[in-house]
Amino acid sequence: MSKKDNIYADQLEQVESFNFDQKVVEVFPDMIKRSVPGYTSIIDGIGQLAKKYAQPHSSIYDLGCSLGAATLSIREAVNDKTSKIIAVDNSKAMIERCTLIQSGYNFAMPVDVIEADISDLKFENASFVVLNFTLQFLPRDQRQTLLNNIYQGMNPGGALVLSEKLTMGSTSLDHNIIDIHHDFKKQNGYSDMEIAQKRAALENVLIPDTREQHYQRFVKAGFSQFDTWFQHYNFASFIVVK
């Protein structure tokens, strides 16, 4: 059972850069539920989108899988034992817990849980790829290359689901939406100090892009169909089809 996220509840002498370590693993479901508006809807939607786009005898990738919520949604929605999910994360702590969680379910679709850097992967026979709040943690100069690699390894008719925190088009609008997001976190029990310390920890770790920057990358990679299928405040998810 997930513990309550109180990582930033006490005043810290020095706020270290955010890291997906063991203490985050222990509270991650609570953290994500209280921090990301619409997260449950996105996870449910990923399963439904997989039903539309996942192809038999293909590979499905969950990149930056954390505890494997998207993987479970796909396995539950797509009853196909001929395809396989490859769930990848570079956090040893996340991978160990994800492996344990996945082993507790008896869905038809098999899954390989792998500790690796997603930038080093070679994508093959991919019909469905998930980047659920993952790309924003990669250095900006690596993002286009990853999307290019995904496109090159994707089957015709395959799809990518990319969920990200967005930067709004104007500075004033961006500040106002961020304020609303902070109010959302307060309503979920986070204090002003927790919000401030978490924001400091994520500075230079989570670097969001505008919607237009994402769309430009999709075009450059070669994708011809894409749109926003979900948005709540400054958190959005895109469907991108080859």
Outline the structure in words.
With 242 residues, this protein is an alpha/beta fold. It has a domain at 39-167 and 206-241: Vaccinia Virus protein VP39 (Rossmann fold, 3-Layer(aba) Sandwich), CATH 3.40.50. Helix content is 42%, strand content 21%. The chain has a 7-stranded mixed beta sheet with strand order 3-2-1-4-5-7-6. Strand 6 (225-232) and strand 7 (235-241) form a beta hairpin. The longest helix has 17 residues, at 171-187. The chain is globular and about 50 Å long. The chain starts with 21 loop residues before the first helix and ends with a strand. The mean pLDDT is 96.
Task: Please provide a brief summary of the model.
The protein has 242 residues and is α/β, with parallel strands linked by helices. The chain is built from 8 helices and 7 strands; from the N terminus they run ααβαβαββαβαααββ.
By DSSP, the count of extended strands is 7
Q: What is the CA-CA span between the terminal residues?
A: 39 Å
Could you name the CATH topology of the domain at 39-167 and 206-241?
A: Rossmann fold
Shape: globular
**Percentage beta strand:** 15-25%
CATH architecture of the domain at 39-167 and 206-241: 3-Layer(aba) Sandwich
**Can you list the strand order of the major beta sheet?**
3-2-1-4-5-7-6
Largest sheet: 7 strands, mixed
Helix count equals 8
**What's the alpha carbon Rg, rounded to whole Å?**
18 Å
What is the share of helical residues?
A: 40-55%
Catalytic activity: prephenate + S-adenosyl-L-methionine = carboxy-S-adenosyl-L-methionine + 3-phenylpyruvate + H2O
Binding site for S-adenosyl-L-methionine: 39, 64-66, 89-90, 117-118, 132, 199
Pfam families: Methyltransf_25
Family: Belongs to the class I-like SAM-binding methyltransferase superfamily. Cx-SAM synthase family.
